[in-house]
Write a structure and sequence with these properties.
By secondary structure, this protein is mainly beta. Helix content is 0%, strand content 47%. The strands form two sheets. A six-stranded mixed β-sheet has the order 2-10-9-4-5-6, with no helix packed on it. A four-stranded antiparallel β-sheet has the order 1-3-8-7, with no helix packed on it.
Length: 124
């Protein structure tokens, strides 16, 4: 069974950068993609980006294009999310998950095997 664990979150000032990691253990056979999502207090979980496991094609939510970059190191079984020019509204818990339905950014219900999340706080 596949398991995902996020890391790399923390406190960062506005305009700063963070790189999140999603460590994947177990077989990803049968899954199409790994995606990054976030959830701010009192808000629904929203999709950020995803990467296809078959060809490393990347997908982004329209509102996330330009500041976020997803990548994958197959040798380390890790998916990264580089976040630049961070804003206070980027604050939230960031999760990674797998999908056996979609390759692109999709409703959170299309993804599963959620990790425990990593907290990102953007504040001066």
């Amino acid at each position: 069974q596949v398991q995902l664990v996020e890391s790399g979150g923390g406190l960062v000032q506005p305009g700063g950068s963070l790189r999140l990691s999603c460590a994947v253990s177990g077989s990803t056979a049968g899954y199409f993609a790994i995606g990054w999502y976030r959830q701010a207090p009192g808000k629904e979980r929203e999709g950020i980006s995803s990467i296809s496991l078959s060809d490393d094609r990347t997908f982004y939510a329209d509102s996330m294009k330009g500041r976020f970059t997803i990548s994958r190191d197959s040798g380390k079984n890790t998916v990264y999310l580089q976040m630049n020019s961070l804003k206070p509204e980027d604050t939230g818990i960031y999760y990674c998950a797998t999908s056996s339905i979609a390759r692109g950014v999709a409703p959170a219900s299309w993804y599963g095997n959620w990790g425990p999340g990593t907290q990102v706080t953007v504040s001066s």
